[in-house]
Amino acid sequence: MSDNISGVQLSQWFYEYYIVPRLSSIMPTLSYAAALVGPGSEVLGFDTPMSRDHDWGPRVLIFVHEADISQREAIFAALHKAAPATFNGFPLNVDQTIVATVPAYFGRRLGLSPSRLLEGLDLLDWLTIPAQRLAELTGGIVYRDDFGELTVVREHLSFYPQDVWLFLMASVWNRIGQEEHLMPRAGFVGDELGAALIASRLIRDVMSLCFLIERSYAPYPKWFGTAFRQLACADELMPYLEAAQNAKEWRGREQALSTTYQIVAQMHNELQLTEPIEVRVNHFFDRPFSVIGGNRFADALVSKIEDSSLRKLAAFNFGGIDQISDNTDFRAIQERFQSPSGETNPLRAFFDRLL
């Protein structure tokens, strides 16, 4: 057992030296796809030896045609036959191997019926899916894809459609605009704890915006900061974000956040999605508090959205599920309440009602 092996490497060995020989011997004509996707720190490349205490080990997902799903039991039989207790020094539990069709697996993870997945997500569907879930399904590694369906679906999910991208960035800029003046206001009356809490929310919003600007899915809190450090903007922003987070008084937070806002505003302009917007911070009305005016960027982005439903929804400033809530169970609502018939999940129904 090696402390240096990653989950992806172990999975690849498991595929090459366990899955392939058994299926090739017993089911040589079977067309299938094999991959490591879905939940698990190893899928995002963030696993460490500590990750091995649960839900970690040699595993691969196998995807077959709908016409071949009846062979699921034969596939499991081939994998179970004379199965050793360990593989490469790690406990082997063949029952962890998932055998499914691509539409069924991805549909369940996205909270969509398999038929909806094949038809393609519409723009409002994207708003119900946490970025963590999209990172799980587009991360990892594909070892084999005989019929190309897995590759096509992952490419479709690789990033948000243009209008959804604009919508989500606008919603984060709105969040910044709604609270950027509250941090110094709380500090001004001596509420340093309150000011620090608001600053932390603003830091998270800025970081979330950076993921969107760099067209990358932000993972959930455990790996949020780790993934952020991999962004191109991280080296420039990290000193100011850390200064804002660690400042002892509100003026230090304000100074660090002001620099941060201006850097991210320049990043916005470099996307050339809107007309250039002034990146300088200004006073909030007559108050001595520096703000970037997040609503200016939000309004400019919304004006570029072509879809009428998303433009109408943007007026509510809710954003998608990641902007609406950070509650873990709520973010899983689209999967928890998915019906076999493919009825709309509660969050999608909420968006539809607003329209």
UniProtKB/TrEMBL annotation:
Pfam families: DUF4037
Stated name of the protein: DUF4037 domain-containing protein
InterPro entries: DUF4037
Domain DUF4037: 126-224
Species this chain originates from: Paenibacillus nasutitermitis
Source organism superkingdom: Bacteria
